[in-house]
Design brief:
By secondary structure, the protein is mainly alpha-helical. It has two domains: 2-8 and 37-158 and 207-222 and 267-405, Na+/H+ antiporter like fold; 227-263, no CATH class. Helix content is 72%, strand content 3%. Strands 1-2 form a two-stranded antiparallel sheet. Strand 1 and strand 2 (36-41) form a beta hairpin. The protein is globular, with a radius of gyration of 24 Å.
């Protein structure tokens, strides 16, 4: 769906109806409450508003990985963490080597990102006979990559920070923590505070998607009820009721109570992830791709992109930088004894995964919108992201499939 939405966006922006594409996403939408107003075009409502839910899910995934996933074990996490750092630093340096001091220098964060969905998809198709350990390695690497992208967005791609509003946002976060300590469990209360936190972050000048990450990290990872106690209560409730009571729904209160207890046997983190993941995966991220993928191709634009340091810097960063950075960082970590390769994997596998990590579609496009206000630079960057993601995916696919045919 993500790929399909991107293709539709590109086709629409290059069709006879291309003006309707830009008119749609430039439509102004205003929220008004008394004298307070919040006005943005539709594209920014998607990028700043709906994508905050995507980053909320990212925050939930990061917390889960830290508590129960690969990032919990320092030795197992060392290689993907070090690899991710190499895969962020080298692409940024290669990009800057072509753009330092130029109009495109602010785009250095674009080639740092890895698109988890596309990367895992290519890995799954390409490496069916490769070690199963490659998938958690790439997932952990991409999660660390997301943490780096979040920090880059917060520190380098936010506007001038308004301290009072930022302090207000911190106050809302502290209030959420305090209510959790007092065992307040009302979803409505936390939704209201989440919206308030998002508005405060938006007004502070920090990019509002950071609010989503903060909320994800603040979400409790422990269940309020023990599954065994809920199971025992379910048995008692079932034994004390009949299928056809004389008064319909006579047993409704105790069954409703059991439903609430059953719900609380699952952690808020797992519940939030289960509720939001389908929306972010199948609605929000494809909508983001549709809103941001549109580039109108012209002969003049293609010639400009072919020699643009922005386009070439992104290509160099994502295709070469990711592969070289992740591989060299992993090699250094293994040789120094800090960690080990994924079980059953060889260096050929790791090089293939490193190449696949150069697929930077979603977050790269997101940072592109933050980095550039000049439409020319934005289009050149998007072209670079498209080409680099295609080349990186094909390169990684070829390396892993070659290895599979060799039987390793």
């Amino acid at each position: 769906m993500l790929l399909g939405a991107a293709v539709i966006g590109l086709a629409w922006a290059n069709s006879p109806w291309q003006q309707s594409y830009y008119d749609l996403w430039n439509t102004e939408i205003t929220l008004r409450l008394g004298s307070w107003t919040l006005s943005e075009d539709l594209r920014h409502w998607v990028n700043d508003g709906l994508m905050s839910l995507f980053f909320l899910v990212v925050g939930l995934e990061i917390k889960r990985e830290l508590l129960t996933g690969e990032l919990r074990d320092p030795r197992a996490a060392t290689i993907p963490v070090v690899a991710a750092l190499g895969g962020m630093v080298v692409p940024a340096l290669l990009y800057l080597s072509l753009n330092v001091g130029g109009d495109g220098s602010h785009g250095w964060g674009i080639p740092m990102a890895t698109d988890i969905a596309f990367a895992l998809g290519v890995l799954t198709i390409a490496a069916r006979s490769a070690p199963a350990s490659l998938k958690p390695f790439l997932l952990t690497l991409a999660i660390v990559d997301d943490i780096g992208a979040i920090l880059v967005i917060a520190l380098f791609y936010s506007e001038g920070v308004a301290v009072p509003q930022l302090l207000l946002a911190l106050g809302f976060a502290a209030l959420i923590v305090a209510l959790q300590r007092f065992d307040v469990r009302s979803t409505a209360v936390y939704v209201a505070l989440a919206v308030s936190l998002w508005l405060a972050v938006y007004e502070s000048g920090v990019h509002p998607t950071i609010a989503g990450v903060v909320l994800g990290l603040l979400t409790p990872a422990g269940a309020f009820q023990r599954p065994r106690a809920v199971s025992d209560e379910a048995v008692r409730t079932a034994e004390s009721t009949v299928d056809e009571p004389e008064t319909p729904d006579a047993d409704a209160p105790q069954w409703l109570r059991l439903a609430r207890l059953s719900r609380e046997a699952v952690s808020p983190l797992a519940r939030a992830e289960d509720a939001l993941h389908p929306w972010t995966s199948y609605v929000i991220v494809p909508m983001f791709a549709l809103a941001n993928a549109g580039v109108t191709f012209t002969a003049e634009g293609a010639r400009a992109a072919a020699t643009s340091p922005v386009t070439l810097g992104i290509l160099l960063g994502l295709v070469v930088g990711k592969t070289v950075g992740i591989t060299l960082a992993s090699f250094a970590a293994v040789r120094s004894g800090l960690g080990r390769l994924p079980p059953g994997a060889g260096w050929r596998h790791l090089i293939g995964v490193s190449a696949i990590a150069g697929i930077g579609f979603t977050v790269s496009l997101f940072i592109t919108e933050l980095a550039f206000s000049d439409p020319r630079l934005t289009d050149e960057a998007k072209i670079g992201v498209y080409l680099a993601s295609l080349v990186a995916g094909a390169l990684g696919f070829a390396i892993l499939r070659t290895r599979s045919r060799e039987g390793g």
